[in-house]
Amino acid sequence: MAQNTLNKYIWLADTIFKAYRITLKDINAKWLRSDLSDGRELTRRTFHNHRISIEEIFDMNIMCDTITNEYYIENIDDYEGNNFTMWLLNSFSINNIIKESTDIRERILLEGTPSAEIYLTELISAMRENRVVEMVYHPFWKEETFEIDLCPYFVKLFKKRWYVFGTAENKEKVKVYSLDRIKKLGLTEKQFVIPTDFSPVGHLNNSIGIMKTDSDKPCEIIIKSYGDSSKYLRALPLHHSQAEFDVQEAYSLFRYYLSPTDDFYQEILSKREYLEVVSPQLVREKLAEIIRKLSEFYL
User: What is the CATH number of the domain that holds 131?
Assistant: First the structure.
């Protein structure tokens, strides 16, 4: 599929999604203001052809209210909870706005994701066909590279870095690899089968970030948030299990059920003195030990 055609589908889905309800006349008015139109109207026939393609590609049904002649997305609430669909629509929308704002581009500052520049396309292609990839990998903690035949299960973007999760061929344990540490990657003709009971979301259900270890068992963790930091947690929860249960003038208490991995401790430490782990005691003690080691640099 030509990239420009796909962009048109995403533009149409995004326009109707944001409008909730919109007539074809109003869609056309927006369409003519976009770079994709080339100054030509979106005919009714082309519009309906795009509707069919959007349904087939994104499983998103665009319906029509015959009373008001307004178009809307069926079961729109389902898509608001779909991270992939929302990421796709938001990414396109932002990219389109930036393209149309070249006169103020020096006032739009972006963060790059270097790991997406190479290998992401190849990995996604391998995932679509369930093909094993030959990978040469160089972790930060080793002086030498190593080779692995990887069955790529899924990819995740975390803190400006892309990661691929998968198993070594004929192995069961799912491990994670950073794309910017891959030195060489090639698709093979060998195929693999993902276990029917495996779920990418389920795999990281109890994790913050990309880490999952056998030693860091999930547990209930209580965090005390001081001052305005509670407002930030409400707007952007640390984890999907977050539940606020005690609101005071000076602080709030939040309950979580997750694995206290290194990513968890880094997240807590990034909030400085505004977050305190209340329980369990073992997590408090580990965090205190990390802080003691940090303090040695400055005392």
Answer: 2.30.30
